[in-house]
Amino acid sequence: MATAIEPLHLNGSHGEGGGALLRTVLAMSVLTGRPVIVGSVRGGLRSRGLASEDMMFLDALASTCDADVVGGIGDHEVEFYPRRAARPLRYSFSGETYGGGSVSACVVGHALLPVLARAGGMSTVELHGSTHGQNTLAFEALEGVSVEAHRRQGLFSSVELRKAAFFPVANGHISLEVEPSVLESVQWGARGRLEACGASVTVAGAQKEQGGRAADALNDLFHDAGLRPEISISRHPDSDPETQITCWARFETGMGSGTAVGRTRSPVAEVASQAFADFLRWYQTDATADPFLADQMLLPACLADGQSEYSTPKVTRRLTTMAWAVRQFMPIRVTVHGTEGGSGRVTVER
Known about the structure:
Elements: E1 8-11, H1 19-32, E2 36-39, H2 52-65, E3 68-70, E4 78-81, E5 90-94, H3 105-117, E6 123-129, H4 139-152, E7 157-163, E8 172-178, E9 194-204, H5 209-224, E10 230-236, E11 242-251, E12 254-263, H6 268-283, H7 291-303, E13 307-312, H8 317-327, E14 333-337, E15 344-349
Parallel strand pairs: 1-2, 5-6, 9-10
Antiparallel strand pairs: 2-4, 3-4, 6-8, 7-8, 9-11, 11-12, 13-15, 14-15
Helix pairs in contact: 1-2, 1-3, 1-8, 2-3, 4-7, 5-6, 7-8
């Protein structure tokens, strides 16, 4: 396909070689106006090629920059040619449109934030897919931690849960609003004072008592650790019977969370203990961002003027891969101090 700017050719199996690499590359293509051709899509994973989740993200990005896209479900290569700068998006996207595969509405929504923040106007996006599940971004972590951290980076958005759906079920619904934003650098060298902590309990199915039992167990866990939590319970009787718990904390300059998922037959106290243990793996360190948030903060930090700094208890391959991807599009100093799997610090300077 002819284009005035030579496309950048990238290897989709580099580093982590998964969806985060592809989403970062595509977002940077929109933000810089540089076309990109990605080969070996998701080449670092067992299930390779463009997935339904990728197609939903591609569709949303193409809608905001009028891009030409070459590639479909299962393809190992995708070509992306943005025609103009991003503009505000007002649209609805459903995971069921893209081949019937599993789609996380929260993952797609979060990946859109840096692009829509630069769109020059208010964007309102309806996303239909899963909203909760193991090893994926849960709505409560998105709303209570990711969105709040980005707010401190100058990226203003709000998200609302319309219907819960646990992965791989894709009939959930979230609504996302993103304001035009001027991104700011953050200096998260030390956490400072604890501002708030707590847990969010999402109960799907008909067993109302699950939420109360979870709250009791969580109160005991937090109090035993010397913490006074804020506990919220969200009930969704029309969804399949599952429970997800997200424990979180916000400091003056730092925040993080931990999650766990259990089916209705799982003892809810056990799910609470798992979520709290996951939370403690970050909280009991001096790191200013949990490992997943450290990944999420990177792209907004790279778009902000000045120098950003934050720390993580675990340097993930996803983080180093995303840093590599950003550097392919812009001359920027992105340094991940530390070794993979160990604690580390991220510094970004434009």
